[in-house]
Amino acid sequence: MPAFSAPPRQPGRHPMARSKSSNRWLDEHVNDPYVKMAQKDGYRSRASYKLLELLEKDRLLQGGMLVMDLGSAPGGWSQVVGRKLGNKGHVIATDILPMDPVEHVTFIQGDFTDEGVFQQILAALGGERPDLVLSDIAPNISGVDAADQASSIYLVELALDMARQVLKPGGSFVVKLFQGEGSDAYLKDLRTSFDKVVIRKPEASRPRSREVYVVGKGFKG
User: Fold this and answer.
1) Over the Cα atoms of the chain, what is R_g?
2) Strand stretches in 76-131, DSSP E
3) Tens of pLDDT along 208-218?
4) pLDDT in tens, 133-163
């Protein structure tokens, strides 16, 4: 059997050493007050606090609502809405990744742009239209800024297309948007479908992140 030689090591660098950026992220995560709050409050994700702020600031949730959560895994946003609505509403959540069950939430695994998955979503809606469509979808980061931005815009366009197909007239839409190439054009397009559009930067959103949350209210149908 031929021998395999290990690649040469860089001087002074342990083969298992983390990059500075990885260490920074780990330090941030461990010391993040929202991570600690999520653990204390029993939420699956620190992102739960972003949605909690948006729901309160823009008064997006009322009893009896039907809510759709696009790109829902691991379930942080679905968990927030499920807890708030309880038996007085319902959440339809979907993601290509698996998601552990959440009370008051119906989860459908798959790509919502796939016709078969879309039909499953329609069946779960049971002829009703959501009052609120949420999307916290983000692309897998490649490290190439232009490609990552293009991917993120593609995903928010898919989310908006879905909202336009299913949302109840007068309903609301919340989507995560990364500011950069294509974001202004996206906002211009979104404003054609909603009476009011505002941009939010929740406290739980890290300051150095380019993410903002766009809230559209009064869907024109």
Assistant:
1) 20
2) 89-95, 105-109
3) 899 999 999 99
4) 999 998 888 989 999 999 999 999 999 999 9
Which residues are registered as beta bridge partners of 196? 217
Task: Confirm whether 176 is a catalytic residue.
Answer: yes
Give me the catalytic one of 50, 84, 176, 217. 176
pLDDT tens-digit series, residues 107-129: 999 999 999 999 999 999 999 99
Q: Where are the domains of the chain?
A: 20-219
When pLDDT is averaged across residues 16-40 and rounded to a whole number, the result is 61
- Rounded distance, CA 196 to CA 188, Å? 12
Tokens found for residue 210:
């380019």
* Residues found in the chain: 221
Whole-model pTM: value is: 0.83
Residues in contact with 64: Cβ distance below 8 Å, sequence separation at least 6, in sequence order = 88, 89
CA 212 to mean position of chain CA atoms: 11
Name every residue whose Cβ is closer than 8 Å to that of residue 101 and which is 6 or more positions away in sequence. 107
Residue 165 clears pLDDT 70, i.e. is over it: yes
44/62 Cα distance (integer angstroms) = 23
Confidence of residue 86 (pLDDT cuts 50, 70, 90): very high
Class of 20-219 per CATH?
Answer: alpha beta
Helix and strand numbers, DSSP H then E, in the chain: 7, 7
